[in-house]
Design a protein that fits this description.
The chain has helices at about 20-35, 40-50, 50-60, 60-75, 95-105, 115-120, 130-150, 160-175; strands at about 1-5, 10-15, 35-40, 85, 105-110, 150-155. About 55% of the residues lie in helices and about 15% in strands. It is of the alpha/beta class.
Length: about 180
């Protein structure tokens, strides 16, 4: 786990490619830290009555990404410190990256793209992507994730519970709780 020092903003934002574990680990962090968990997938489904996969199919990927950007900005506006599961595409937008940098401590969750592709095959609410698609997305977003992240956590090995515990310990070392 790598750490990068800076002053602690109020939200904890989990970044990373789709399927990396932002929702699972986010819920656990929320419990450990007694903060609400704000999940982009849930927010989008509640607001639009449809999954990201269906939105992308019906309206296109660009529209899904616009909706994801808006959801991210809405979650960053939450009045109390929260754990936020950020959509993978949110870092594509400069204004959203700026808001993340100002308002959140960002944690970049990583995993091998082949493992992510296998996870996505088992989920019906996300766009189907194979390892080559994910490699391309990672190449385009990796610099953004890295520039925002105070912590980088590999989620390929270890249980979600153990990973959440490692993150909590690292946050405490940084003076964030």
């Amino acid at each position: 786990m790598d750490t990068h020092p800076s002053s602690p903003p109020r939200h904890l934002a989990l970044l990373g490619l789709t399927g990396v574990g932002k929702t699972t680990i986010g819920r656990l962090l929320s419990e450990h830290l007694s903060r609400p968990f704000l999940d982009s997938d849930e927010l989008i489904e509640n607001a639009h009555g449809s999954t990201g996969r269906r939105i992308a199919s019906a309206a296109g990927v660009a529209e899904l990404h616009r909706i994801e950007r808006d959801a991210t900005l809405a979650m960053l506006g939450h009045p109390e410190p929260a754990v936020i599961g950020v959509p993978a595409s949110a870092v594509d937008d400069a204004a959203t990256r700026s808001a993340l940098a100002r308002l959140a401590t960002c944690i970049w969750l990583t995993a091998p793209t082949q493992r992510l592709a296998e996870r996505l095959e088992r989920q019906d609410h996300r766009r189907p992507l194979d390892a080559a698609d994910l490699d391309e997305l990672l190449a385009a977003r990796e610099g953004h994730y890295a520039s925002l992240a105070r912590l980088v956590v590999a989620t390929g090995d270890g249980t979600p519970e153990a990973l959440a515990g490692e993150i909590v310990a690292a946050l405490r070392e940084l003076g964030i709780s």
